[in-house]
Design brief:
Blueprint lengths: L7 H25 L2 H67 L6 H20 L4 H19 L2
Length: 152
């Protein structure tokens, strides 16, 4: 029969024969080893697996801590942004109340917002210093705030 045209049964028998040969040769080689070497192999395999598992655990833990740090950083940015938005809403509401009633007490939220604006923007700039795209967006927000605030 030409090469490659053998029957599947013949191929299977050859493969099984090679497996028997290789398993038998491995068993013979293993039996020929001194007990000390066989014991070392038996102990080394689980120890190696343990080291691999330990390495994977350390890598996983480091990844988790890195993700946790990024989440906490994002939470700080969200809190500062929410504070900025809340201050803007309160200031706008106070100005609207003053416009309607002419009562100067309504300008208190606007005054608090005006004094804390620079501090809030500075904290946000510091938090966003590693992200140029978000820092650019903050600069645009600051420009709009200052433009809108100056028109009042």
């Amino acid at each position: 029969m030409p090469f490659g045209r053998e029957q599947p049964k013949v191929l299977l028998e050859r493969w099984i024969g090679m497996q028997r040969f290789s398993i038998q040769s491995i068993r013979a080689s293993w039996a020929a080893l001194p007990v000390r070497y066989r014991g070392a192999v038996v102990i080394t395999i689980p120890a190696f697996c343990l080291l691999i598992t330990l390495g994977a655990w350390v890598w996983s833990r480091e990844s988790l801590l890195n993700v946790r740090h990024r989440i906490e950083h994002s939470d700080k940015i969200i809190q500062e942004s929410a504070g900025l938005l809340s201050g803007m809403i309160n200031a706008e509401t106070g100005v609207r109340g003053y416009t309607i009633t002419q009562n100067p007490d309504f300008l208190d939220p606007y005054r608090r917002y005006a004094t804390s604006l620079d501090l809030v923007l500075q904290r946000l700039r510091q938090l966003l210093s590693e992200n140029p795209q978000q820092l650019h967006q903050l600069q645009e927000i600051e420009r709009l705030i200052r433009t809108k605030g100056a028109s009042r």
